[in-house]
Design brief:
By secondary structure, the chain is of the alpha+beta class. The protein has a domain of 152 residues: Peroxisomal Thiolase, Chain A, domain 1 (3-Layer(aba) Sandwich), CATH 3.40.47.10. The protein has 11 helices and 13 strands. Strands 5-4-6-7-1-8-13-12-11 form a 9-stranded mixed sheet, with helices on both faces. Strand 12 and strand 13 form a beta hairpin. Helix 5 packs across helix 6 and helix 8 packs parallel to helix 9.
């Protein structure tokens, strides 16, 4: 561990890492599973439906999913159970307390990918932040488990700001470095989003996928020659019930309440679209102006991967024209919505071609509402 006493630094992004589950579910597979569930449900409740005391469920379709979201496929940690009409959610054997947890396991894999990409040893890292939309347990912190498995000294803690967890984590790491409290910080975002999705809800059964990302934020004195200067970060939150998940020990006191619809992901999609798009576009433009950056000159936007329509409109408002795939790359079609990891996947996969001096934006937005902007400039 580095001695950070009485030092201050200049934070940069040195590396990123990615873990992608091997299993995938296509829209065709997902629709077949959902429609089988719908048929079973309507058959089992035929009497109530006929009496008018219950509404029949409606089937889904590939066309509906792609029009609503732009998603075509997603990676998952537990395919068979998620597609089983009797289960409709991920399942895996419970691990003992002495085994690495599922969430920590994929976070460790992403962290190791980031460190290996620049030949960095875990011993060189001072802190670990596990920034994700849902934690596997309240405590011990997932971050401390990841820290222990990697052999990192220093400190670690969890943080949850839903879909903006990773960008909030990047600013927190940058602030530690500016203050001299750390010189190298791993921001790890293991997102097992299928675990908190309601696969029985036609409006949202297709949204989420699973993944883990890692971002290594360091003082520039430690960074490799090829790195990203963090030009500026900004965070914003506005309370809204339009995206909500009520799962928690205080409101899941009985077995009967666990897994009920309001304990899983729910949203008012149209309201979210209408309210979040202008909020985020305005935030980006104003933050760019405060940094002396003309938004129209941004080389690339790595936006939150939740909905292709939202990204298209936000990018257009920021750049002043409809963005090309090169200007605003998409991973949503193959990964689905991976919550806070989405914009980091886009950055990880679509940044190597940037030239020194190019400026781009990592941006998240989602439940809370929460939004985070991280302006970066390529250094080589």
């Amino acid at each position: 561990m580095n001695d950070t006493t009485q030092r201050s630094g200049h934070p940069v992004i040195s590396a990123t890492g990615l873990f992608t589950p091997a299993e995938t579910i296509s829209n065709e597979e997902l629709v077949a599973s959902f429609n089988s569930f719908v048929e079973l449900h309507n058959t089992r409740h035929a009497a109530e439906i006929a009496a008018g005391t219950m509404e029949a469920l409606q089937p889904s379709s590939v066309e509906f999913i792609e029009k609503a979201s732009g998603i075509k496929s997603r990676h998952v940690m537990s395919k068979a159970a998620t597609l089983d009409p009797e289960t409709m959610g991920p399942r895996w054997p419970e691990r003992s307390n002495d085994e690495v947890s599922v969430m920590a396991e994929i976070g460790i894999a992403a962290a190791r990918d980031a460190l290996a990409s620049i030949g960095r040893d875990p011993e060189d890292v001072d802190a670990v932040l596990c920034a994700a939309s849902n934690m596997q347990r309240p405590y011990p912190a997932m971050a401390i488990e990841i820290q222990q498995a990697l052999g990192i000294e220093g400190f670690a803690f969890d943080m949850n700001v839903a879909c903006s967890s990773a960008t909030f984590g990047i600013q927190t790491a940058a602030d530690f470095i500016r203050a001299g409290n750390a010189r190298s910080v791993l921001v790890v975002s293991p997102e097992i989003c299928t675990g908190h999705n309601n696969m029985k809800n036609r409006d949202s059964h297709f949204i989420f996928g699973d993944v883990a990302t890692a971002v290594l934020v360091e003082d520039r004195s430690l960074a490799p020659a090829n790195h990203w200067e963090i030009v500026g970060t900004r965070l914003k939150t506005v309370f809204s019930n339009n995206i909500r998940n009520n799962f928690g020990f205080l409101n899941c006191a009985t077995p009967e309440t666990i897994g009920t619809p309001d304990k899983l992901f729910v949203q008012e999609g149209r309201k979210v679209f209408k309210e979040v798009v202008p909020m985020v576009a305005t935030m980006i433009v104003e933050h760019a102006g405060d940094l002396g950056i003309d938004p129209a000159t941004l080389r690339r936007l790595w936006l939150h991967q939740a909905n292709s329509g939202m990204n298209r409109l936000i990018a257009q408002r920021v750049l002043g024209h409809e963005a090309s795939e090169d200007e605003s790359p998409t991973v949503l079609d193959t990964y689905g919505n991976t919550s806070s990891a989405g914009s980091i996947i886009a950055f990880h996969q679509h940044s190597a071609d940037m030239a020194p001096g190019d400026t781009g934006l990592i941006c998240s937005f989602g439940a809370g509402y929460s939004a985070g902007t991280v302006f970066v400039r390529k250094v080589a």
